[in-house]
Amino acid sequence: MITGAHIVIHSRDAEADRAFFRDVLGYRHVDAGNGWLIFALPPAEVAVHPTGGEPAQELFLMCDDLDATLAELAAKGVPAGPVTEAGWGVRTTITLPGGGPLHLYQPRHTTAHDL
């Protein structure tokens, strides 16, 4: 029935953000026409959390070693926010060239993407 998920990032500078996913993160992509790049993502999972506020969605990229990933990103000129501890993992935020935040974390929970 459902064959995949398509995530949309709304950006003030879509060209720069596309270049970031292509050149910095090295994600494979297809050109859907006129430079409209659509990127293949690593395996994904979805979680549903309760909220006392407005319903919202967030995008977190996952890694196996946050320190190593941050070092690799820093070598490519990508700054990161402070690393914070959470019971479910260690997390930070990087800022896309278009100004939007992108969450990054190393999970401590059992992951579902190898099912």
TrEMBL record:
Keywords: Dioxygenase, Oxidoreductase. InterPro entries: Glyas_Bleomycin-R_OHBP_Dase (IPR029068), VOC_core (IPR037523). It comes from Solihabitans fulvus. GO terms for molecular function: dioxygenase activity. It comes from the Bacteria. Residues 3-107 form the VOC domain. The keyword Oxidoreductase applies. SUPFAM superfamilies: Glyoxalase/Bleomycin resistance protein/Dihydroxybiphenyl dioxygenase. This is Extradiol dioxygenase. Gene3D superfamilies: 2,3-Dihydroxybiphenyl 1,2-Dioxygenase, domain 1. The lineage of its organism: Bacteria, Bacillati, Actinomycetota, Actinomycetes, Pseudonocardiales.
